[in-house]
Design brief:
This protein has helices at 3-14, 36-55, 75-87, 107-112, 125-128, 140-153, 167-182, 201-208, 221-234, 248-255, 273-278, 280-293, 299-317, 324-331, and strands at residues 23-29, 64-70, 93-95, 117-118, 133-134, 159-164, 189-193, 214-217, 240-242, 263-266, 335-338, 343-346, 358-363, 367-369. By secondary structure, the protein is an alpha/beta fold. It has two domains: 3-136 and 275-346, Response regulator (Rossmann fold); 140-266, Rossmann fold (3-Layer(aba) Sandwich). The strands form three sheets. A seven-stranded mixed sheet has the order 7-6-8-9-10-13-14, sandwiched between helices. Strands 2-1-3-4-5 form a five-stranded parallel sheet, sandwiched between helices. Strands 11-12 form a two-stranded antiparallel ribbon.
Amino acid sequence: MSKLLATALLTLAMAPVAWSQDIVIGQSVPLSGSNADIGRDMRDGAQAIFAKVNAGNQLGGRKIQLVTLDNANNRQRAAENTQQLLGQHNAMVLFGYNSATNSVDALPLVTQNNMLFFAPFSGSLSLRGHPNVYTIRASYKDETLKIMESKRGVGATRTVVLYYDDEVGRSNYEAVASVFADAGAEKPRGVAVKRGAALDAATVDELTKDGPHYVLATTQFSVVGDYLKIANDKGIPVPVAALSFVNPDELVESVGNLARGTVVSQIIPSPRASNQISMPLVKECADALKALNGARLNYTSLESCIAAKVLVTALKKAGPQPTRESVLQAMGTLGRQDLHGYTLTFGPNQRHGSTWVELTILSRGNRFVQ
């Protein structure tokens, strides 16, 4: 344990927690840099629901205050944000961090404060084993299984895994590879890329040298976009299947038609207009976001909206004077949550509410369709 983290643990353990009238929810996401749009969508999707709850006085006079700090998609910044959220802001819950990499350093502090770490935007196994972490999404293993089975159905059996060369990235690669091993298939080869670095032509050559049927990407959209651009320039016809960590809206904006045929696993329903008619949940989130800032609902803001709705249910169950511990306990006893378009189940031995996965493919009009 680093000296900085040890000092933070001691300081937070000694600090008295005096809850204000507001219920403070702490969030650390990128609000600057290349991933700023994703961070803003994560913030606004939740804020749309919290604003609606506050306006309706749904928590007996108490208001939810979402404090969102910019981590610039940097692990050190994220760790510093967590210390600030718990110390300066007295956050009752940590919520909706944007990746496993930017979440892992919060886990010792979450343990120390016996509090809920809810709905990180990641299916990484590096988070899912922690007893204070509850999620609303399927794991990367669930997503990989769906992709593997679909690809096998069309005769695509050989893949290579693109992953980040760091602690979390390697964990994700091993989780993905284990799905193939469990199915009796050969362990797929992996190719690592430095987090935050652009993909280069040599790495694309390394990915495609053995003639895989597809590249299975566990990275963010920028790396996938780099691959698609370089592969197109080189005339390499190896398509991509990506885990939900790829933001499909950002991918389309960055490379447009080059992404056509790319498969992305989704762990929530589509925010498309037709679902806003057929699914009350999607319509509610779309309407709430429009009322907040006029923005159009996308996958990221919809996931954050869903997470916020579930968190509000836990806050209500925690009683009129919730604490960090009582909210954590409430989340573990929520049971089945039918959100009229997406169902989650939580219990003492079920911290991950869903295993639902849907595959989408980028089709005409630059839209991801089922």
